[in-house]
Structure prediction request, 409 residues.
Amino acid sequence: MVWAGPSGTRLLADMGAEVIKVESARSWDMLRSLHFLSGSPPGWWDKAAYFNHNNRNKYGITLDLQTDRCRELALRLVAMSDLVFENYRADVIGKLRLDYADLRAVKPDIILVSMPSHGKSGPESHHVAYGTNVEQLSGLASITGYPGMGPHKSPIAYGDPNAGAIAAAAAIAALHHRRESGEGQHVEVAQWEAMIGAIGEHVLSHQMDTRGAGFQPASPPAEEPSLGNRHISRVQGVYECATPDEWVAISAGSDAEFAALCATIGRPELARDPRFADVVSRRHHHDELDAIVAGWTRGRSQDEAARAMQAAGVSAAPVLKIPRLMQDKHLRARGFWESVTHAGAGTWDMEGPVWRMSRPPPHNRQPAPMFGEHNAWVLRDLLGLTDTEIAVLYAEGVTAGEPDLGVHA
Prediction:
């Protein structure tokens, strides 16, 4: 549900896996409620961009796993599957009697991938967290922000997609292991631990700075202030341009790059100024440099400024907003944007898989499933239920074609 698990299974679906997403009327993916549509148009739960982005190339069914009948059907589905993904809190899958031992009873070589925030062992395994909490716990927020601001969270909760990508990779490794050994396994990706790996250089820096003689901890080093858009050793920033709310990112590292930057903005003498003579001096006088560079960029468009810097060998790029990103000529020429048509949400452009393979070329095979869209296919064609048996499931409310709107609406 939500982002961590769905992002991992979306990667596998993009690679060609047949992924079946399981929801229920009373436990449906809350991303369906984040539709940001005015009013409540018919079938709004199928029109949420966030949900449709994270669940493309998947099939969708509804089974109430809290009932014995649907648990039985779920286990029958497991018996013909390779992988089971779940990103509930640590105790939920056990309460549903669908933990690893239950799955192995019906398919001994099954691979279960679990993604609890704190892991399934340890004194805090009972804790519950979202990607935003994981950012704080992992240390990411502590190294993010602008001078004087203190810790600053990201706007998108990196803990979720980061854990999803790691879980997908771990699942593929488990599949390779099974091919060699014939054994399945329970793969656990604690989202907190996965996020710590994303700031590994900061952890290592702390360890190296504090180890002291004989690798014994010494006194902690002074905390570095938040850098914002700056860099520890480069002249770097994001600068306002002539058009309102347009920006260009510029970064120069070596003395040669800095000299090229100075020549580009028409101030070659700055490269010989004692205030900016070397990396250390430029860092101490970064505020003055920012004012000088910004004075130059404010007289130019973001493209003009970026091209001028690039021509001189200085790293630079316009800061693209979403509308322009969607129209970018380079991405369009590469076929990155693909048209997707959804029976409930209409037609739009979506990014394709972000890897290129000579064969078969990856693409968006199908849009995200509407609620319960593939119930008949799974229940009748895969599990062998009769139409009468399926009708009973609907009548009992343990499978459904619409969500219970009293849950997330």
